[in-house]
Every structure is written in C-alpha cells, then in structure tokens.
Amino acid sequence: MRKLALAAGVLGFALQAHAGPDPGGALRALGATPLRVGGDLIAAAGLVAASSVGLVGDGLSLLDANRITRPVLSGFASGIVRQAALGLSQGATGALEGLRAEDIERLPEPREAYLDNAPGAGRLDTVLTGLGSLQLALEDALTGPALAVLRAAGAKGPASAVSGWSRDERIRVLGPLVRESSEEAE
C-alpha cells in the first residue's frame, strides 16, 4: 500500500511538472551554453590578469607616485600599467556581458578601481570575481545541457528550478542584472 501511495505521489508530481515539450527553450539553452561558458572563462582569465597587472602598477606607484617622486615622475610608469589593468578588466567583463547577453549592474569595474585607488585596494575583489567566474563556467557547462534536456522533455518545474539556481549563482558571483535591481526597488 505504501508503494502504491508513493508511486501515485511520484506520478502526480511528474504530471504536474510536465507541461509539454519546449523545443525552442531547449535549443536556446543548448545554444547559450558555449557562449556563457566562454564568457565566464574569458572573464576569469581577464580579471585575474587585470588584478595581477594592477598589483604591478601599484608596486610601481610606490616608486613613481609617492610624495617625493610625484612632482617629477607624476606616476608615469605606474599610470600606464594601471591603464593596462583597467583595459584587461573592462575587456574581460565586456566579453562576459556580451557573450552572456546580460547587463550586469557592477560591471565593468569602475575606472577608479584601477587608476585612483590606493596601492592594493580592490585587487582581492577582482581576483575573487575572476575565480568566481571560473566556478560559474563549470556550473554553466553542467546546467546548460541539463536545462536543455528538461525543457525538451517538458519538465517545466525542474527546468524552472535549475534556471533559478543558475540565476542565483550568477547573482552570487557577479551581482544582479541592471533590470533586476531596478525591479527590486519598485
């Protein structure tokens, strides 16, 4: 009797979660997966590199932008290196946003985080975002095909759960989309 009740419960859940195949949604999920993963990987490499180059610029600023040398050297070398770090960061996060087709609120990283900050300030956050993007790449590589299969099978409830989890992970690592934060304010 318990087995029959369990089977009936599972069948009821399956019927409720099954809403008919969604081949378009499955194709969109499958097609978006390599783009998302590619954007995540570019961001991971670019942000870690930007942080490293930024630290080199910070080290140089101790030499060419301190109280004594600033009037003569004006932070020339450190400024160029910091601009390169800014370019790496903004290029990587631009690729991330473009390939994911998302406008993330806190990206690209602001100019001030590279050019006007104290030595070392903000570099750990950049590295952590880069490492988080690497984790996001793995998660997107796994959830994209799973989402495609669930949508193709018409399992609307589980597909929605996977999609929601993926969205929550993106918010945890990168932050909300511009429209998500404005919707929460209303």
What features would you describe in this structure?
This protein has one domain (31-174). It contains eight helices and no strands. It has helices at residues 2-17, 23-64, 70-73, 76-100, 112-115, 123-153, 156-174, 178-185.
Q: C-alpha Rg, in Å?
A: 23 Å
Mean pLDDT: 82
Strand content: under 5%
- Number of helical regions: 8
Sheet/helix structural class? mainly alpha
What's the count of strands? 0
Inertia-based shape: elongated
Assembly type: single chain
Spans where pLDDT lies below 50 across 5 or more residues = 1-15
Cα-to-Cα separation, first versus last residue: 51 Å
Brief account:
The protein has helices at 2-17, 23-64, 70-73, 76-100, 112-115, 123-153, 156-174, 178-185.
What are the SSEs and their pairings?
Blueprint: H1 2-17, H2 23-64, H3 70-73, H4 76-100, H5 112-115, H6 123-153, H7 156-174, H8 178-185
Question: Which features does this protein show?
Answer:
186 residues, mainly alpha
